[in-house]
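Rather than argue in generalities, we reproduce a single protein record, letters for residues, whole numbers for local backbone shapes, just as it appears below:
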Amino acid sequence: MSKISQFPTIVDSIPYLSITKLKSMGYLKHESGQSGIITWYSNGKPFSSVSIISNLLESPFYLVVSYNYGNIAKSVRITLVSKLSNLGKGAYFYFVCPHSKKLCRKLYLCRGEFSHRERIKNGIYRIQRMSKKERLYESKFGAFFDYEKYHKQAFQKYLKPSYNGKITKRYAKIIDRLNQAEQISIIDWEKSFCK
């Protein structure tokens, strides 16, 4: 009897709600409420969207997320919790997972429900699925393919290139990846496949 194949869920390709993204889009401003639509894209084409209504006027804070799964209209209320940072300056928001009640900064839309990462059974990341050879190519030529991404990051609005006279680790990493990408030539790329 043959073994039933297990096709794991690739976590990188699942749409998700992120506290960081919602904050940058203005949904998490204190003592306010806002509504809007978030759309996820794959290869430049929209593949999923949700409408969000945030309520931070009174405690308990929450988001109402409405979306379609198949032909079924769904709506879920996600509670937000504010906790003090470990540095004692300011507070951070966390989602309370509607199913596991765990605090998290990302909620994944898997099988029609927003939930914590641990609720995704057999979930793996893209890099875990790569062979040794693919990972080798990724380490050698990944910067070449991600050049545009790193170039955008280098000129982000709030990126700090230096702090207190020293280059920040994040900016140094971006510049390092850009330099790696510029050193890769098409000849190197072709030689790697002719072996």
Remarks:
- Residues 130-194 form one domain.
